[in-house]
Amino acid sequence: MISAPLGFSQEIPDVSKPNTIFLLTHLAPDENQDSCIRLSNRFDFQSPMKLLVFTRSAQTQLCKTLVDTDAFLAQSQTDQPFLLLIHGAGKTLAESVEIAFEVQKLYQTNVLIYHWPAMVGKDYDAKNLKGIKEKVDEGIPYFVDLLHFVQEAKNQSKDTKNPAAWSLFLHSIGNYYLESMVNAQAFGGLATDLFENLILNAPAVNSKNHAKWVEQLPIQKRIFIHFNNKDMILKGLRYMTRAKNQLGSKAKDPLAKNASYVNFSEAVGYRKPIFNTHSYYIYLMPTQSVNLKKYYHDLFHSKTIDFSDEMVFSKSHYPNLFLLKK
Q1: Are the CB atoms for 150 and 51 separated by under 8 Å?
Q2: pLDDT band at 15, cuts 50/70/90?
Q3: DSSP 202
C-alpha cells in the first residue's frame, strides 16, 4: 500500500478500539490512489467491497483496509452494540469519517458508516436530486451486499459470550435506499430480525404514500421515523427542486402501522446554523437537550423506547406519534 497523506497511517494498534470507527464502501479509488486516501464517485466493478478501519488519538490518525469479517470483529468491541449509519447527500470520505467519529464520541457505540456516491453536482437542484436517486437505484445490489455483510458479522458474533445487537440509522436522502429496496423487492435472504431498531432520520423522501413502502420493510424489530416541522434543509430542498412534502419535515397521513413517529419540532424546531434543524442527532442539539441525547443513545444501543415517559414525550391523537420534549 502506498503512503497515505491527510495524516492517515496504516497500522492499527489493538489498544485503540474505543476510538475506532469502520467505513464500508463499494466506491472505486481515484486513479493511482489507495482507498484510505481518496475515493471516486463511481462504483468499483472490479473489487467492489472495501472495509476500512479508522482510529485516532490525540497524536495520530490511522487508517487500514480490513480483509474479512473476522478482522472486523477482532477490531470491534463485540460486547457493545453496533450502529450501521447511512449518511445523506454530498459527503466526502473525510466528512463521512468525521460524522462516524462524532456519533462514536457522543453515544459510545460501535459505528460502521456506509460511504456511498452521494455527490452528483455542486448545487442541490432538481437535476442533482434526480442524479442522487439514480445513484441509489444503481447501488441497490451493493447495498444488499452491505446488509449481507452485517448479517454475516452478526451471525459470527453469536458465538461470543455477549453477542452484540445491531441497529440501522439512515439520514436524509440515505433513506431512499429503503424505498428503493422495497421497489426492487431486494430483501431476499435477509433475516427478519437483522436489526433491532430501524431509524429513519429526517428522511428526504416524499411523505405522501410513504406508509405503502414502510409497511413492507422486513428486516427489523422496530421502526422509528423522525421529523421536524422546521427542518430548513428539507424546506429548502422542496423549494429548489419542486419536490413534494418530505417525510422528515411532515409526516402525512396515512401513517405506517408498523412504525413509531417522533416529532422533533419542540426539542429542535428552528435553529441557526440551519443544518441543526436537519442533522440534530449530532453537532449542537445533543449538547443542549438531555432528552434528545438520551433518546438517540437508547436507539443507537438497540434498546426499546418507553413512549409512556411523560418527562420525555407528549402523546398525540395518533397512537404511534409522539412529541419529544425539550
Answers
A1: no
A2: very low
A3: S
Contacts with 202 (C-beta within 8 Å, 6 or more apart), sequence order: 171, 172, 226, 227, 228, 231, 233, 234, 248, 249, 278, 279, 280
- E-state strands within 216-275: 220-227, 259-263
Whether residue 26 lies inside any domain: the answer is yes
Task: Give dist(CA 301, CA 285) in Å, integer.
Answer: 19
The residue segments making up the domain with residue 163 are 8-324
Q: Provide the 10 A C-beta neighbour count for residue 159.
A: 9
Q: How many domains does the chain have?
A: 1
Q: What is the CATH number for 258?
A: 3.40.50
Q: Tell whether 2 is covered by a domain.
A: no
pTM of model > 0.85: yes
Do the domain assignments include residue 3?
A: no
* Three cell numbers, residue 60: 495520530
What pLDDT sits at residue 116?
94
Lookup result for grid cell 412529541: 323
Q: Which residue has the cell 480490513?
A: 66
Binned at pLDDT 50, 70 and 90, residue 253 comes out as very high
Instruction: Tell me, yes or no, whether 246 lies in a domain.
Output: yes
Radius of gyration of the chain (CA): 19
Smallest CA-to-CA distance from 259 within 313, 213, 298 is with 213
